[in-house]
């Protein structure tokens, strides 16, 4: 938010430098992102009076003689402007002057005649016509004839001022206006606040046909309307135009400028409706009908839903509540009667409507952070005051106040001094606490260490003793907080816990397998679950919804890592990466009940994502097997079904009878649905594995078991069998180990399908290592063991040896 120092001084007698004020604002909790001197880009430009002028024969130039007071008399400057005249007061850039853009002025030879400076236009001084009359004229800026000769143009043009760009936190909507910042400055400088005038002269004129009411108190708890008439259309005063311009607003018309001025000064968005355009002289807020349409001031037609709040006349919507007015109700030069509106709209509804409709305005920005009912009343009063004081309109007697029943009284809370000091960790004297709160316009009385506090109506953020502690320390000074250890704290050398060390070791292991770690947001959209065909009754659909998501794409808290992994893989494919291996070790959030009544179960999951032409099911399995082998675990794989994985290329992962997760290849139809180039889809193979890391960690042993290398010889044999295509290889491997106690290791070599094997058949080749600690395995033993395995597998799985 931009704040002009001279505007601030209208409410507070500021007796510190602009730089010191910046520091004090920081100390009070307001980050000043930039402090800018308006005249910083202009130097050595003064007011000069043209005392003589003659045409330079043979050119389009005028030879001007200027009196610049103490800066020099009879200064010769040539100009090509045709709007200068003898006696004119003009801005003169002296030799050595600097203009906006870093343009430096030197004496120069102009067609054989020396010119010692330059006469400036408004454009060359980088000021608009709304800042100084005539600044937008094509030619030299002609100043008021009473302007002092030799005066610094920075002061003459009102550029001897500072502007603060202040970041207002979401919990302080009362400070998103000049008056709010002024209250804070008055408090920490110990100065009285000079409040803006709120009175006006009300005539006896009424307009009985006007109807103002409220049909949506849940979204609009306060709605004020006031009739004004005999509206005059002229430019607003220069001081108002300059203040609007300094905050990035363009002056339009006196009545429109007043509503914008009140937005900046009081923080209350105002809207003026042309009574002549209000059908049946009616105005009220309600929820939009499904499919209802409105054309807003920007000329765009918008289709609405019941989630949008609209302002209506008797026949339909005339504006998006708190966002933008309708095209048909805007103020024009023909407007004579107006219904002024000031309202409080619920911030979450405004925020959601802005996102859904793709529109954002200054008014919506204010409502999104919150507008209190005190500002509604004050904003209306200030708007009427300015309209009356500036002669813009006469104030009628017809007015309306539609309220949802919220109390207009100041809230009262009781806080113990000990509670405040406990939060701060220091002892702030009671007298100082009372002084600080009173300087912030809180009413305070104290008895036996208890503070009875009356909270200003505009401070809706203050509810508990913690809030009071924050107010106290902002003014008392954060530098007075003494750093100390917690009572239970101990000085340690730092380091990781055993669990953290193991997580780090797992990550390093995965990196050694060519994987890159990713870190994604803990939120995504229900559409991400839809994209993976997660069933509606699946446990993963039992998710926590975000009440005020920053975007619909981050509207639920994740229950799986796979959707996040898929988004990362998809983005990499779109940026022409041919292949990669990713992993993420991060929590998912499983609610214990919905709606949420307690913290969700945060369980860490390990997700692998692999894609590329050289990757297949077994390259992913190898990564997982390496993880198992490193921690002396044995994983069992069995055929499984997961909604988004290929039914024939999906396996569950089990360890010691506990299912840890699953792995598999992404379905072809889901690959085809990805938002990637059509030419890439045919060659894209994506593999996903997701493991419950909590269950995996439970399988890890806390001790290291050393197993010496055996000095006994082992023998390896390969077995190729033809089995039904639905036979799970994992079950075959498990069966081998049951059949022969000599089978110490069993690995899959390949799976092969061919028509000659018969319909529904596949060839499976296993490599079996036969070994024992008792003795060296002979070839005869290995052959006998192989024959036994082949026979039993044939009986158990109807397997036939492949020739």
Word description of this protein:
- There is one protein chain.
- The chain is an alpha+beta fold and 803 residues long.
- The protein folds into six domains: 2-38 and 162-189, Phenylalanyl-tRNA Synthetase, Chain B, domain 1 (2-Layer Sandwich); 43-156, OB fold (Dihydrolipoamide Acetyltransferase, E2P), CATH 2.40.50; 211-402, Phenylalanyl-tRNA Synthetase, Chain B, domain 3 (3-Layer(bba) Sandwich); 411-476, Phenylalanyl-tRNA Synthetase, Chain B, domain 1; 498-699, BirA Bifunctional Protein, domain 2; 715-801, Alpha-Beta Plaits, CATH 3.30.70.
- It is built from 21 helices and 38 strands.
- The strands form ten sheets. It has a seven-stranded mixed beta sheet, with helices on both faces. Strands 3, 4, 5, 6, 7 and 10 form a six-stranded antiparallel beta sheet that branches. A five-stranded mixed beta sheet has the order 12-15-18-19-20.
- A hairpin with a 5-residue loop joins strand 16 (293-295) and strand 17.
- Helix 6 (254-266) runs antiparallel to helix 9, helix 11 crosses helix 12 (465-476) and helix 20 (729-739) packs across helix 21 (779-797).
- The termini are far apart.
- The mean pLDDT is 92.
């Amino acid at each position: 938010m931009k704040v002009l120092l001279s505007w601030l001084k209208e409410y507070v007698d500021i007796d510190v430098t602009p730089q010191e004020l910046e520091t004090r604002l920081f100390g009070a909790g307001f980050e000043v992102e930039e402090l800018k001197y308006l005249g910083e880009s202009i130097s050595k430009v003064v007011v000069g009076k043209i005392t003589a002028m003659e045409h330079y024969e043979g050119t389009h130039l005028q030879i001007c003689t200027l009196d610049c007071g103490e800066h020099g008399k009879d200064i010769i400057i040539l100009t090509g402007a045709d709007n200068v005249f003898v006696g004119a007061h003009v801005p003169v850039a002296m030799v050595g002057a600097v203009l906006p853009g870093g343009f430096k002025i030197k004496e120069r030879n102009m067609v054989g005649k020396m010119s010692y400076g330059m006469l400036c236009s408004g454009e060359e001084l980088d000021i608009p016509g709304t800042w100084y009359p005539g600044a937008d004229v094509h030619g030299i800026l002609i100043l008021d004839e009473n302007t002092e000769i030799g005066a610094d143009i920075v002061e003459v043009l009102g550029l001897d001022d500072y502007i603060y760009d202040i970041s207002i936190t979401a919990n302080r909507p009362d400070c998103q206006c000049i008056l709010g910042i002024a209250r804070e400055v008055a408090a920490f400088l110990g100065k009285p606040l000079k409040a803006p005038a709120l009175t006006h002269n009300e005539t006896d004129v009424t307009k009985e046909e006007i109807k103002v009411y409220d049909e949506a108190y849940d979204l609009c708890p306060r709605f004020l309307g006031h009739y004004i008439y005999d509206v005059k259309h002229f430019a607003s005063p220069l001081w108002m135009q300059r203040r609007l311009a300094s905050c990035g607003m363009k002056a339009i018309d006196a009545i429109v400028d007043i509503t914008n001025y009140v937005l900046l000064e009081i923080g209350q968005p105002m809207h003026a409706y042309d009574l002549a355009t209000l059908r049946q002289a009616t105005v009220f807020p309600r929820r939009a009908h499904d499919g209802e349409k409105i054309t807003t001031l920007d000329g765009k037609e918008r289709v609405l839903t019941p989630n949008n709040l609209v302002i209506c006349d008797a026949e339909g919507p005339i504006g998006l509540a708190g966002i933008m007015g309708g095209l048909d109700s805007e103020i024009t030069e023909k407007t004579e009667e107006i219904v002024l509106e000031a309202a409080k709209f619920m911030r979450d509804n405004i925020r959601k409507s802005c996102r859904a409709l793709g529109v954002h305005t200054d008014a919506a920005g204010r409502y999104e952070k919150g507008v209190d009912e005190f500002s509604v009343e004050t904003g209306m009063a200030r708007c009427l005051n300015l309209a009356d004081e500036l002669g813009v309109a006469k104030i009628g007697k017809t007015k309306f106040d539609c309220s949802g029943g919220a109390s207009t009284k100041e809230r009262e809370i009781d806080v113990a001094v000990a509670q405040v000091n406990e939060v701060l960790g220091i002892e702030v004297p009671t007298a100082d606490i009372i002084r600080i709160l009173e300087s912030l316009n809180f009413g305070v009385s104290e008895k036996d260490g208890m503070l009875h506090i009356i909270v200003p109506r505009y401070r809706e953020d203050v509810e508990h003793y913690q809030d009071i502690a924050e107010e106290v320390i902002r003014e008392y000074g954060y530098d007075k907080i003494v750093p100390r250890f917690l009572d239970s704290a101990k000085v340690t050398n730092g380091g990781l816990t055993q669990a953290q060390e193991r997580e780090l070791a797992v990550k390093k292991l995965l990196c050694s397998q060519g994987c890159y770690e990713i870190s994604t947001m803990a939120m995504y959209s229900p559409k991400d679950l839809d994209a993976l065909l997660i069933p509606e009754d699946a446990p993963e659909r039992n998710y926590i919804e975000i009440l005020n998501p920053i975007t619909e794409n981050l509207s639920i808290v994740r229950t799986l890592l796979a959707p996040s992994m898929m988004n990362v893989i998809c983005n990499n494919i779109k940026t022409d990466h041919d292949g990669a291996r990713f992993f993420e070790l991060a929590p998912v959030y499983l609610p214990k009940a919905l709606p949420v009544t307690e913290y969700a179960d945060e369980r860490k999951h390990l997700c692998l994502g692999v894609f590329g032409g050289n990757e297949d099911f077994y390259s992913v399995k190898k990564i997982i097997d390496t993880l198992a082998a490193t921690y002396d675990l044995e994983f069992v794989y069995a055929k499984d079904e997961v909604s988004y994985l290929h039914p024939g290329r999906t396996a569950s992962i089990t360890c010691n009878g506990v299912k840890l997760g699953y792995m598999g290849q992404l379905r072809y139809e889901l690959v085809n649905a990805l938002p990637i180039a059509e030419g890439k889809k045919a060659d894209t193979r994506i593999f996903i594995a997701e493991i419950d890391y909590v269950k995996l960690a439970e399988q890890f042993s806390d001790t290291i078991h050393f197993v010496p290398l055996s000095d006994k010889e082992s023998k390896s044999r390969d077995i190729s069998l033809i089995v039904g295509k639905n036979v799970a290889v994992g079950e075959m491997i498990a069966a081998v180990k049951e059949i022969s106690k000599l089978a110490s290791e069993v690995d899959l070599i390949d799976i092969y399908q061919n028509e000659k094997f018969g319909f529904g058949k596949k060839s499976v080749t296993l490599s079996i290592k036969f070994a024992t600690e008792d003795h060296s395995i002979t070839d005869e033993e290995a052959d006998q063991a192989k024959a036994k395995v082949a026979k039993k597998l044939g009986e158990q799985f109807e397997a036939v040896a492949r020739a």
